[in-house]
Amino acid sequence: MGRRRRKLLFGVLLLPAVAAGALWWLTKPNPWDAAHWQGLGEPDVANGEQVFWAGGCVSCHAAPRAPEDQRLVLAGGRTLKSPFGTFYPPNISPDETAGIGNWTLAEFGNAMTRGVGKDGEHLYPSFPYGSYSRMTAKDVNDLWGFMQTLPKSANVAPPHDLPFPYNIRLALGGWKLLFLTDEPRADVNTADAKLARGQYLVEGPGHCGECHTPRNALGGFEEGRWLAGAPNPEGEGRIPDITPGSKSIGNWSASEIASYLETGFTPDFDTVGGSMVDVQKNMAKLPPADREAIAAYLKALPAS
């Protein structure tokens, strides 16, 4: 074989390896540098509790059908059905074996905001880190401090039940490359402190878009349809459009939206239903100013 032909063959063999290496580099788990989680000081547990309710941790991580006095036992195990398979939220109680009691702040924070697990693996976006990515390091630190005060549980949640190819975690790196961002979802006047706070709560810890925004075939949000309503990922029906002008809350005033989040009653004296029941219970525990900020942000959005 001539020298020129050997070079050509070598190049043909090398190109796929280079392409594979570049693809791996672009899609590998990408946690924060260690410095991101340093120097935050002692957690503000009171603020951590507010972040906890805003984030809706109870809704997915409390045991299925847990009574009211057990809602803070984050034993995991609830069934979340989706077009991609069935997900089972894990135990995130402070239990050192079954839960996350032996995690560090950095491990917790990277799971919350980068979708990277304790062992460096990609996490599935059924855990809404695509929204939590907007959370500040301080809020994550405060949340972590509050969660250490919660009861332990020895329950071990079932593993996810996913068909091929969705059971291949490496593919999640490509999903993140396409869809994971901490950029704002909507253009609102963030010079207004109330709107800025509302945007942070709705787009970040509140993760409202995870249910209220339609998704494409790969599970990413459809462009230009923020909070415009979507099929119910857990069954029949739809999650409503909550932009101005919608049939659900489009004609409500900001004060009526804030009141609904506090009391569960609509302006027509109907009551909250479905999966929104848990969300409303969580929102009722926030300070009035936060519910007002959420309402102001929703009213500031363009109609879908």
Tell me the β content. Answer: under 5%
**Sheet of most strands:** 2 strands, antiparallel
- Count of DSSP strands: 4
Count of helical regions: 12
* Strands in their spatial order, largest beta sheet: 1-2
Give the % helix: 25-40%
Outline, from the CA principal axes? globular
Protein structure class = mainly alpha
Number of domains: 2
Distance between the termini: 65 Å
SSE order, as H and E?
Answer: HHHEEHHHHHHEEHHH
Mean pLDDT: 89
Low-confidence stretches: 6-11
Structure commentary:
By secondary structure, the chain is mainly alpha-helical. It folds into 2 domains: 33-182; 184-304, Cytochrome Bc1 Complex, Chain D, domain 2 (Orthogonal Bundle), CATH 1.10.760. It contains 12 helices and 4 strands, in the order αααββααααααββααα. It has helices at 3-27, 45-55, 57-61, 105-114, 129-132, 137-147, 172-179, 193-203, 209-212, 254-263, 276-283, 288-300, and strands spanning 80-82, 85-87, 230-231, 238-239. The strands form 2 sheets. Strands 1-2 form a two-stranded antiparallel ribbon. A hairpin with a 2-residue loop joins β1 (80-82) and β2 (85-87). The radius of gyration is 21 Å and the shape is globular. The N and C termini lie far apart (65 Å).
Keywords:
Cytochrome Bc1 Complex, Chain D, domain 2; 39% helix; two-stranded antiparallel sheet; 304 residues; mainly alpha
